[in-house]
Fold this sequence. Notes:
Blueprint (H helix, E strand, L loop, with lengths): L1 H24 L2 H6 L10 H24 L5 H22 L3 H22 L5
Helix pairs in contact: 1-3, 1-5, 3-4, 4-5
Amino acid sequence: MNTALWIVAGVLAFVFVGSGVMKLVLSKEKLVAQGLGGLDDVDPNAIRGIGAAEVAGAIGLIVPPLVHILPVLTPLAAVGLAAVMVGAIVTHGRRKEYPNVAVNVVLLGLALFVAWGRFGAYAF
């Protein structure tokens, strides 16, 4: 189970670092042009905040247990990413962007799996 939790955390970290860095470094116009049209009416500072939360969550999934400093941050990071996904599900659902909702539901499930495992019997 520990291996499965590490793999899922790694997949989540990969996805959220990519998504978060993109939101941090690209302008809103470039994000919309790349297919993130749902961000068209979102404040640029909110986009950057979401990107920062995604990158911080991704780092929190991997780094603390690797360096053996505050590994309790790993399940907390997973909960934070789950909260970001709940917001994404609500936002995409209101816009009837159902394929995005499906992806967000999968990411939510994976984040909750890591939180459950690292808060529970498979904590560091």
